Task: structure prediction
Amino acid sequence: MLIALLVDDEPYILKALKTMIDWDAYGFSLLEASNGKDALEKVKITNPDLIITDIKMPGMNGIEFIRLCREKYHSPAEFVILSGYEDFSYAKEAMLYNVYDYLLKPIYDDDLNELVSKISKQIREKNTRAENDYQKFSYILNQYIRRAIKGEKKPVVFKRISTLLNIGEDDDVTCILIEMEYENKEQLFGSDTKKWDKERQIIESWLGFPFLLHLFEDDMGRFGIMATEHMPFFHSIEPSIQELIKDMETATGRSITVTVSSPEKGPRSFATIYKQALFS
Result:
């Protein structure tokens, strides 16, 4: 299920947006916020796929909200802005932040339906491409990450990681390790290669399609995530992880332990941050 976030300080506009179309038919669950500050908190935690926001709001206007989403939280969401004729200049400014489209008030059912249908299709196509890349590159990338966390320093290792994960030498990166409770060694190292399918699926859903390749598995069966500053939840890792732990424990009945390293720079820090997370 995709996530759409509706942002407007006028309750009747939010109500109209929620009821004008069948969001579920387009594959969206809905979140709402009445101002930019609350909306930013939801962006950090939930990483929406689509954000529809008003331009003129008290405290933080829509332009500033979009700018922070893009520049601070690196949100990959598709943005649609709501604008009156008199503030169309703001809409043009918002286009600098790769806004998908704008809707002029008053909003009509047909216009909203057509736009959401088009965006839903585009997001799903993008997610399909990301999933195909994940299937194609996940195994080989997992091997390179394992080599890096063990301390291998060959330039080709860092180059492949940097290319596949789009991590620069100066990008902040943190290692997250996720360990499941198991009854015995046979359960951990048994021949069933799908023993952690349910857990993996929950983590993949939490990460979202653009970041699936950041997930790896170490030699001891732990799941790891090399989280970078380009991920929306990077600046709010702790509350995001608490949600992940809750979801995993509820779904699996297992006790879940998650540890997080301090942020370091680039792929060359993988061995350091992995050890930090391992022994923290």
